[in-house]
């Protein structure tokens, strides 16, 4: 069964189509968006080798000519150098403003190709065909596009909504276990931030989702996308509620920055640890019950994800170094920090004006070095 979730953004509204076998329908679904019967498909080497032929066949069946632009996999590609290379290759294809880019891959491909689409000849349309669990439940929806710089993650970017998102659950069959778990961290996030019932469902069915049980996977992806679509529809450019989607990210980004954005710590793993830490910080501040923080931590740990600083490569971390990274966060203002904290499971809120000293003290209690 295929489900379509609407992202309600007026004239920029679009659908996220989720199901098994969606890739085979790509030509029929993308064709109505095209002025010219062609698309540049941006993908990484791994995804292209595994699934490129199937996407190409589906597009060609609908009479769409495919120009593959295959880039190296990995976070390092989401850089100024990666953007320069990609935009140069798109220009060499002589795409015009009536053309559409298809981003076919995980969050790295989606964020980079989306940003390239946002700035290519002042902006052209793009379609997301996400191939990781993380990209299907989070990065392909909502229009955040970006690259990293030496000073931090996602610091250069644009809001640029895709015209369509096609999430084929079958492509996840080839996703390595570790990447599957990393994506699951973003699934748990939706339960923790705003849906206690979904969190309970994940406690009972998380193992099935990770084992790629077709029905469990379909429910987990669809519920996650529904929640994201609802939040983005209300607050596209993160003036308020959309910040909730950053639960675990302030701590997580600091850990990623300290470990160097590489294989040692995947983005989803950093977010997993960051969520457990955010729940414990909420408990330490007296905002939520300790048993809620413990329950969240258990659900994250049950998925084989880190919940403690001591489980993250690079431990022991210096508290001051982590707080310095947090001060670079896009949500920080005037030396005060912003966190997504919780009053309970499913009851997150945006806490502004947090004193960095309180964070340092908490991190020392978590095992960070002075
Ligand atoms: P990724 O794109 O690096 O993909 C992870 C790895 O899996 C890569 O090596 C890739 O080649 C491989 N892969 C992808 N699909 C595969 C498949 N079906 N089978 C086998 N291998 C496959 O990483 P990711 O976790 O998808 O995305 C992380 C990025 O997403 C980060 O840069 C993060 O900042 C960004 N992100 C963006 C948003 C947003 O709203 N835009 C949200 C969350 C995360
Ligand atoms: N992943 C956070 C957001 O889309 O806002």
Structure overview:
This protein has two domains: 2-174, Rossmann fold (3-Layer(aba) Sandwich), CATH 3.40.50.1970; 177-365, Up-down Bundle (Dehydroquinate synthase-like, alpha domain), CATH 1.20.1090. The strands form three sheets. The protein has a seven-stranded mixed sheet, sandwiched between helices. It has a two-stranded antiparallel sheet with strand order 7-8. Helix content is 46%, strand content 19%. The protein has helices at residues 26-30, 45-61, 80-92, 107-119, 133-139, 177-194, 196-210, 214-234, 249-259, 267-284, 290-302, 319-327, 356-365, and strands spanning 3-7, 14-19, 38-44, 65-71, 100-105, 125-130, 144-149, 152-159, 164-168, 337-342, 348-354. By secondary structure, the chain is α/β, with parallel strands linked by helices. Strand 10 (337-342) and strand 11 form a beta hairpin. Residues 44, 46-47, 50, 73-75, 78, 105-109, 111, 131-132, 134-135, 138-139, 142, 144, 153-154, 171-172, 174-175, 179, 182, 267-268 line the site of nicotinamide-adenine-dinucleotide (NAD).
The molecules bound to the chains, other than polymers, are: nicotinamide-adenine-dinucleotide, glycine
Number of strands: 11
> What would the principal axes of the Cα set say about the shape?
globular
How many angstroms separate the termini?
Answer: 53 Å
Task: Please tell me the overall pLDDT.
Answer: 96
Rg estimate, integer Å: 20 Å
Low-confidence segments: none
Helix-and-strand structural type: alpha/beta
The CATH homologous superfamily of the largest domain:
Dehydroquinate synthase-like - alpha domain
Helix content: 40-55%
Order of helices and strands: EEHEHEHEHEHEEEHHHHHHHEEH
The largest beta-sheet arranges its strands as 1-2-9-6-5-3-4
**Which fold does the CATH topology of the largest domain refer to?**
Dehydroquinate synthase-like, alpha domain
- Give the CATH architecture of the largest domain: Up-down Bundle
Tally of separate domains: 2
Largest sheet: 7 strands, mixed
């Amino acid at each position: 069964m295929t489900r379509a979730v609407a992202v309600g953004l007026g004239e920029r509204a679009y659908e996220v189509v989720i199901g098994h076998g969606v890739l085979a329908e790509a030509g029929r679904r993308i064709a109505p968006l095209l002025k010219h019967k062609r698309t540049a498909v941006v993908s990484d080497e791994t995804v292209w080798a595994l699934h490129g032929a199937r996407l190409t066949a589906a597009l060609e069946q609908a009479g769409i000519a495919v120009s593959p632009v295959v880039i190296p996999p990995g976070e390092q590609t989401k850089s100024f150098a990666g953007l320069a290379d990609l935009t140069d290759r798109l220009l060499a294809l002589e795409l015009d403003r009536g053309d559409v880019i298809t981003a076919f891959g995980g969050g790295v491909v989606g964020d980079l190709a989306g940003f390239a689409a946002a700035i290519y000849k002042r902006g052209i349309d793009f379609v997301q065909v996400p191939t990781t669990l993380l990209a299907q439940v989070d990065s392909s929806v909502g229009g955040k596009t970006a690259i990293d710089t030496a000073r931090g993650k996602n610091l250069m970017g644009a809001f640029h909504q895709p015209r369509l998102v096609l999430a084929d659950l079958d492509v996840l069959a080839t996703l390595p276990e570790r990447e599957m778990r990393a994506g699951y961290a973003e699934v748990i996030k939706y339960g923790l931030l705003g849906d206690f019932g979904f969190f309970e469902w994940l406690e009972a069915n998380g193992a099935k989702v990770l084992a790629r049980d077709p029905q469990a996977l379909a429910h987990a992806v669809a519920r996650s996308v529904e929640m994201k679509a609802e939040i983005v529809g209300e607050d596209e450019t993160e003036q308020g509620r959309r910040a909730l989607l950053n639960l675990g990210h302030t701590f997580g980004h600091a850990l990623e920055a300290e470990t160097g954005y590489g294989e040692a710590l995947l983005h989803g793993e950093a977010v997993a640890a960051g969520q457990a830490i955010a729940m414990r910080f909420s408990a330490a501040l007296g905002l939520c019950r300790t048993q809620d923080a413990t329950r969240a931590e258990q659900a994250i740990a049950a998925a084989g994800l880190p919940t403690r600083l001591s489980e993250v490569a690079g431990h022991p971390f210096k508290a001051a170094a982590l707080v310095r990274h947090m001060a670079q966060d896009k949500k920080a203002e005037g030396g005060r920090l912003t966190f997504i904290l919780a009053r309970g499971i499913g009851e997150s809120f945006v806490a502004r004006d947090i004193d960095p000293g309180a964070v340092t003290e908490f991190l020392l209690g978590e095992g960070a070095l002075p």
